[in-house]
Amino acid sequence: MNTGALLPNSFPFVMSTSLNAWSDALSELYLFGLPLGLVIIAAVPLVFIALYALTYGVYGERKISAFMQDRLGPMEVGAWGILQTLADILKLLQKEDIVNKSADKFLFVIGPGVLFVGSFLAFAVLPFGPAFIGADLNVGLFYAIGIVALEVVGILAAGWGSNNKWALYGAIRSVAQIVSYEIPAAIAILCGAMMAGTLSMQQFNLLQEGPYGFLHFFLFQNPIAWLPFIIYFIASLAETNRAPFDIPEAESELVAGYFTEYTGMKFAVIFLAEYGSMFMVSAIISIVFLGGWNSPLPNVGSLALNDWTNGPVWGAFWIIMKGFFFIFIQMWLRWTLPRLRVDQLMHLCWKVLTPFAFVAFVLIAVWEIYVK
Amino acid sequence: MQELGKSEQSSLRVTPQGKGRVLIEKDLSSEEMVLNMGPQHPSTHGVLRLECKTDGEVVIEAEPYLGYLHRCFEKYAETVDYPGVVPFVDRMDYLASMNNDLAYCIAVEKLLDIEIPRRVEFIRVLVSELNRIASHLVAIGTYAIDLGAFTPFLFCFRDREHLLGLLEWASGARMLYNYILIGGVAEDLPKGFIERTREFVSYFRPKAVELQKLLTENEIFVKRTRGVGMMPADVAINYGWSGPMLRGSGVEWDLRKIDGYSVYPELDFSVCVPDGKFSDIGDSLSRHLVRAMEMEESLKIIEQCLDMMPGEEGFNPRAAIPKRIRPKAGEVYGRAENPRGELGFYIQSDGKSTSPLRCKARSSCFVNLSAMKELSMGQLIPDLVAIIGSIDIVLGEVDR
Amino acid sequence: MSNRIAEGFTMSEYFRDIGSSITTIMTGMGITLRHFFNAVKRKGGAGIDEDNYFKQVDGLATLQYPREAIPTPETGRYRLYCDINDCIGCKQCERACPIDCITIETIKVTKDDLGVCGKTSGGQQKKFWVPVFDIDIAQCMTCGICAAVCPTECLYHTQVSDFSEFRRENMIYHFGNLTKLEAEAKEKKLEEEKKAAPKPKPKPAPKAQPAEGG
Question: Taking CB atoms and an 8 Å cut-off, how many pairs form between chains A and C?
Fold first, then answer.
């Protein structure tokens, strides 16, 4: 959606508040006839994933888990262990890249790649604020849900290619889990799509814009919206293999699941993919139900909190913060709960979440058509 | 507990789970796969190796292979003198060294027929109950970790730390105490120990409640353990189970009550048996519950010990220790209630030597583990992990 | 696969399951969150033998080991130490050790040297030189049996609990109080004394010692 009135290759666009201004301007940026701007657009989510996985994803999770468990967490490298993840990356870089002798080498090598690409591609439709989005597709949400499913292929390739029984178990479990949980997740997301009447990510955000901040969010616009919200949150845990649905990598059962045999950077890539999809599902849930890059602060009288805290930079801040909030809840759950069993996982999916998702679907449809 | 109609022709595999529950599997059986679990597997609690025949995720049969931690305890005990065996007994069940020492000393004292001072008896009961709590904390914590909950594990270890501190203060060592000696204890309790133990009891009670709320009452935990690894009482008795395992199957069998050794008959405590409301009697959850309840009972025993212990100024706990231990020719079987069950020592003396002619340990873990094959039949791999965790094995005692 | 499926379960059970799942998960999350916010506190460094021990255990329990450590109580039974000046060379510890990690060699003190050899702090005349008193601390399991049998209480466990070394040889502690040359000289002296006075020599020296020492 190009609102026009933009000057390519000029810098005033930084100040522009119109929709997708930054990314549109970047896409027209050429250097020596090469589409440099497009490369930058693609690099932004990549850099973001790497930075966030390093800081909040790994270091943050370690600290959060430590504090929940009455521990200190990493303390040695840097003040309060802040450089611990860097040290880990250095270690992973130096590690021998082992491909075991009887592995299916092709699948073993492409597995982590496919996994990461699957999670990374979804970032194409993720708006980092009102002014930046990789591709403002009119079916952005559908694309995001669909492309994440590519991860399944990567997991299966990794698990099968490892030629390890534990890895195979992990891969099969993971595929069964992700494929199953896509159904309640998709229906729950459809509830949001029904409320919005669109599948475009930016439209979702625009529809939840307003002076009253969080009151315009879909979660508070509809009395039943909390149900698909919770269903999608639970299903997203399963889709990203997070506890209590971490049975594909259940360390006490399957050693490490589908990435048992991986070392060095391949292992790091698998982790990066996991953190990427963790943020992706958190961002999707905040876009669909919690207003995406819109500020949750309302205008109170003369205090125009909402107006002050909206804009391209604030938008990026809000969506990242909302994503981090959900990641915190994911971590919080992980460090509280035991793990479900395979059959209980399927029970939860097919007999609890899916029927409830259908109920929510019908109720929201009724509300949208007859009440609103 | 046998599989009915498990064959290629039948379409159903039925595994009774006790109390009217059955595990029914539609025949989707595929190729059998041999899965080697351990000795480096995270949830085999050490170096247990299980060779599992699996059909998909269903374990058809799991055979435990032992011996990775075999240290020739029994043979070695024949080469050292009687007091010298105690440090090796410590190393059998390294999570409950005090209880091991107590069992061994009871056996040798029976052979020697010596009188133990009353204060020593109270000290022994006190430290072994403290150690029982520490051991159960490890059992519960590692069980949580087997089921994927990491936080309760660390809470358990945080509290165990205080217990280890107390025991270190009393005995000088943190894990392998060599504190209970034949005829006495190594040192009298240090000054202030009794008050500190009281403080521990009041500190630990709310923590135990928190642990129950965080872990035991959690619906996922209950779902994972309830009805898993059912062991009917009669089968459990036939396997020679003891300790929390047997009590989990609903049998009121506690050597502290049955044998009434040391000063246990004077103390008021109950034998913990699940009532079948929260768990199905004989399942993994029952065994977990027994351990959780026993911690409370141990706290009660500790409080009573602290109240009833005769205080003596300048008490010499080594007074009754024989200078040279050379028992008359004969044999004896002494046993005590370990946190993991009945730990017994069969000792044979030839009357001439200062070292035992034969020292056989009846290890509770080994006996409890022997039912693994029976328990694992037709279970899922996650359930297999839950079952191993509920047996609470210490490989040091299994292999000796 | 689940037992509940085989059993068949009712609608009320279904909703009760969901209800109890939600409440128990919330309870658990409340507990972890409480601990999360309690992370501003840290456990103090007081040892178990200090009176305020249980008043300072709230909060993060970690102690950062090389810089902070749990204080070893006075009764701590760790590194074995021999005060060789008090050792009378009776070799009781060597015999009592269940894993034979103590090696002792003794030379009988000649009569004229008795004064030189001196007395223990308990006032007991020492009758043996102890040129070799080696403890393989890597083998020692700190059981305390040797310390218990020592008649002069010169062998005891100290509170030092961390004594790791990079080389295994450094784990063998030498407590002998004679150099090799000195030991040879003393041995020669003993030989000469024996030649001079061919009395029934107390060859199995260690056995005689405790009896004499009382």
Answer: 54
**Could you tell me the residue ranges of all domains in chain C?**
3-40, 41-71, 80-213
- Computed over every residue of chain A, the mean pLDDT equals 81
- The domain spans of chain A are 95-371
In SS3 terms, chain A reads as CCCCCCCCCCCHHHHCCCCCHHHHHHHCCCECCECHHHHHHHHHHHHHHHHHHHHHHHHHHHHHHHHHCCCCCCCCCCHHHCCHHHHHHHHHHHCCCCCCCCCCHHHHHHHHHHHHHHHHHHHHHCECCCCCECCCCCCHHHHHHHHHCHHHHHHHHHHHHCCCHHHHHHHHHHHHHHHHHHHHHHHHHHHHHHHHCCCCHHHHHHHCCCCCHHHHCHHHHCCCCHHHHHHHHHHHHHHCCCCCCCCCCCHHHHCCHHHCCCCHHHHHHHHHHHHHHHHHHHHHHHHHHCCCCCCCCCCECCECHHHHCCCHHHHHHHHHHHHHHHHHHHHHHHCCCCCCCHHHHHHHHHHHHHHHHHHHHHHHHHHHHHHC
Over the stretch B72-83, which tens digit does the pLDDT of each residue have?
888 888 888 888
Predicted complex ipTM: 0.81
Taking an 8 Å cut-off on Cβ atoms, the answer to whether C31 and A352 are in contact is: no
Q: Do C141 and B176 touch (CB under 8 A)?
A: yes
From chain A, pick out residues whose CB is under 8 angstroms from the CB of B146.
Answer: 252
The count of CB pairs under 8 A between chains B and C is 112
What band does C3 get if pLDDT is binned at 50, 70 and 90?
A: very low
> Are A68 and C29 inside 8 Å of each other by CB?
no
Nearest neighbour of C48 by CB, restricted to B90, B166, B220:
B166
Q: Which domains are present in chain B?
A: 73-325 (1.10.645.10)
pLDDT at residue B265 greater than cutoff 80: yes
In this structure, whether the domain defined by C80-213 belongs to CATH 3.40.50 is answered with no
- A344 interfaces chain B, CB cutoff of 8 Å: yes
Which of A180-194, B5-19, B59-73, B254-268 is predicted least confidently? Answer: B5-19
Q: Name the residue in chain C with its Cα closest to that of B80.
A: C98
pLDDT above 70 covers a percentage of chain A that reads: 94
Q: What is the pTM of this model?
A: 0.85
Per-residue pLDDT of A216-269, as tens digits, reads 787 777 888 888 888 999 888 888 888 788 877 777 777 777 888 888 888 888
